[in-house]
Amino acid sequence: MKLPHEFIRLPLEFDAQLLAQEVGAIDSALWRPHHEGFKGNYSIPLVSVNGEDNNDFKGPMAATDVLNASPYLKKVIASFGEVIGRSRLMALDPGAEVPVHSDINYHWYKRVRIHIPITTTPDVIFYCGDKSVNMRAGEAWIFDSWKYHRVVNASDIFRVHLVIDICGSSTFWEMAERGNVPWLPQRTPTDEFTFINNDTASAPTVLTEQYNTPLVMSPGEMEGMAQELFSELADASDNPKEEEAVFVNAVKGFCQDWRVLWSQYGLNEAGWPHYHALRQRAFESVKHFDSVLKLANGTQAPRMFLFCMIDPALNVEVKDSFLGHQPATTTPNTPQAPGRATSSDKRQQKTSVSGDITAPASRTAPCPCGSGKRYKNCHGRLV
Fold it and tell me: What was the pLDDT predicted at 328?
């Protein structure tokens, strides 16, 4: 999420010693390597899809067994009074780094990540944009994940943070307004920070996200994301204007055709092949701009289109959350999708993207080529 400052320290403090004790009691075999292969990076899910051991973003979130067995960790998470999304313990080996990256996808575009250091030293430095901080144990921080950021553990310890993803209610953002920015005058004296004690006599309630991705993105949300994309694109002054205009028109055309499809199908399963074919055509039409157009934060413009609009536009994985187990509704005479021929022949379900490789309805599904990778990281990768 984009923030007004690279780092904001929230006016809260936690019992770092008790947190460390609870983390130390967790079976070390539960630490799993980073799902994208970052060397020396590990995590343990605390709030995850269905409360299971996964790194998924889509679907109803629930507390894991690890969180339920850790009363103070649970209280810390519940103390924010927010609806909690995907949250984990995240660790770094001595000398390891979180490589530089920007969180440019649908999940994080409107979610903020809270960091609460548990085991750390002054030699652990968090970089964001042109700023850097050392987050001390027991503090609570948020940062601008839209900007490029990285973490360096130059210490000899196994660094552990609690990280909590939320959208943030108005109450949370009012609290963030009282938070301190390290290079600005204090907005709240540190002796006025709220300390969350270790009284766990009453079981805290952790509210978790149940709907965190659309089954089919609404036209209004799609167009809102497009305007965000155009704004980011306009703020990057070095883009060639002719190519930028072609790209913008392609995105606008995608939004227009998406609205027409939505007006006919809504969430109805009969429309899913059409939605999928439309987004695959859009992906193919803009990926060659990846080396040409950039956003204000330095990221290639087609990646925001892909990760914030095309990817999250259709999510068949969460159909049961929206439709239950109802049988699919069919349309006897399916008309053509707008703009191009996508009649009810096999082309609407099989869109060739590379020879005989066919894009699956979900970009997170296994790639049909048999590589074992997810489609978005294989034949559906934007290069």
Answer: 43
Answer for the pair 360, 370: CB distance below 8 angstroms, yes or no. Answer: no
Residue 372 has pLDDT above 80, yes or no: no
In this structure, the number of other CB atoms found within 10 A of the CB of residue 267 comes to 15
pLDDT at 354 over 90: no
**Least confidently predicted of 27-31, 243-247, 300-304, 378-382:** 378-382
Quick one: tokens of 319? 């159909």
**Cα–Cα dist 45/354, whole Å:** 36
| Cα 64 to chain centroid, rounded | 19
Q: What are 229's two structure tokens? A: 């994309």
Quick one: DSSP state of residue 226?
Answer: H
Domains in the chain with CATH codes: 7-196 (2.60.120.330), 219-377 (no CATH)
Instruction: Provide mean pLDDT across the span 208-231.
Output: 96
For residue 111 the two structure tokens come to 């979610």
Distance CA 202, CA 200 (A): 5
The percentage of residues in the chain with a pLDDT greater than 90, rounded to a whole number, is 79
CA–CA distance from 368 to each of 122, 293, 313, 377 (Å)?
47, 30, 21, 12
Report which of 266, 270, 281, 272 is spatially closest to residue 341, judged by C-alpha positions: 281
Q: 85: closest CA among 120, 109, 119? A: 109
Detail the DSSP E strand segments found in 64-220: 84-92, 97-101, 112-119, 124-128, 131-133, 141-143, 149-153, 159-166, 194-196
Tokens standing for residue 288:
């060659």
CA 50 to chain centre: 17
Given a contact cutoff of 8 angstroms between Cβ atoms, the answer to whether 358 and 280 are in contact is no
Between CA 116 and CA 140 the distance in angstroms is 5
What phi and psi, each to the nearest 5 degrees, are found at residue 229?
Answer: -65, -45
Crossing angle of the two packed helices 241-265 and 272-286, in degrees rounded to 10: 180
Q: What is the pLDDT of residues 243-289, one digit of tens each?
A: 999 999 999 999 999 999 999 999 999 999 999 999 999 999 999 99
Residue 288 backbone class (left: φ over 0; alpha: ψ -120 to 50; beta: rest): alpha
Question: The pTM is what?
Answer: 0.85
